[in-house]
C-alpha cells in the first residue's frame, strides 16, 4: 500500500496495520491512506481489524500540524472525525 500502512485480506478479514516507523500519528496522509484501505476492504466485502505495529496503535493527531493551526489543522481534524464516524459505522 503505502509507507504508512499495510493491508492484508484473508478469509474476508482485512487487517490494516499502521506503521509510520514512529508513533503512527494521524496526519492528513495517514487519514487518507486509512480511508483508501477501508474502501478496499469494503470492495473485498471484508470485516476490518485496525492495528498498529507491536506496542503502538496511534499517538493521535499530528501535533506539528495542530500547533501550526490554520486551514491544514482544521482540515485534518475534520478528516479525523469523519474517519471516526466511518469506522464506527463500517459495514
Architecture per CATH nomenclature, i.e. the level-2 architecture: Alpha-Beta Complex
Q: What is CATH's topology name? A: 2-enoyl-CoA Hydratase, Chain A, domain 1
Could you tell me how far the N terminus lies from the C terminus, measured between alpha carbons in angstroms? Answer: 22 Å
Strand content: 15-25%
Amount of helix: 40-55%
Q: Largest beta sheet: what is the strand line-up?
A: 1-2-3
Shape: globular
Helix and strand element order: EEHEHH
Question: pLDDT average, as an integer?
Answer: 94
User: Could you describe the largest sheet, including whether it forms a barrel?
Assistant: 3 strands, mixed
Provide the CATH top-level class: Alpha Beta
Number of domain modules: 1
> Can you tell me the CATH superfamily?
2-enoyl-CoA Hydratase, Chain A, domain 1
**Unreliable residue stretches:** none
How many individual β-strands? 3
Total count of helical runs of at least 4 residues? 3
SSE-based structural type = alpha+beta
Calculate Rg over CA atoms. Answer: 13 Å
Task: Please specify the SSE layout and strand pairing.
Blueprint: E1 5-10, E2 13-18, H1 28-43, E3 47-52, H2 63-68, H3 70-88
Descriptive overview:
This protein is globular. It has helices spanning 28-43, 63-68, 70-88; strands at residues 5-10, 13-18, 47-52. Helix 1 (28-43) runs parallel beside helix 3 (70-88). It has a single domain, classed as Alpha-Beta Complex (2-enoyl-CoA Hydratase, Chain A, domain 1). Helices cover 45% and strands 20% of the residues. 20% of the residues are buried. It contains 3 helices and 3 strands, in the order ββαβαα. By secondary structure, the protein is an alpha+beta fold. The model has no long low-confidence stretch (mean pLDDT 94). The chain has a 3-stranded mixed sheet, covered by helices on one side.
Amino acid at each position: 500500500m503505502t509507507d504508512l500502512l499495510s493491508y492484508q485480506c484473508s478469509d474476508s478479514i482485512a487487517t490494516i496495520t499502521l506503521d509510520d516507523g514512529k508513533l503512527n500519528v494521524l496526519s492528513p496522509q495517514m487519514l487518507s491512506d486509512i480511508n483508501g484501505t477501508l474502501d478496499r476492504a469494503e470492495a473485498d466485502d471484508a470485516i476490518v481489524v485496525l492495528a498498529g505495529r507491536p506496542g503502538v496503535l496511534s499517538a493521535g493527531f499530528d501535533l506539528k500540524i495542530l500547533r501550526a493551526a490554520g486551514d491544514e489543522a482544521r482540515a485534518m481534524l475534520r478528516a479525523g472525525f469523519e474517519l471516526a464516524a466511518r469506522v464506527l459505522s463500517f459495514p
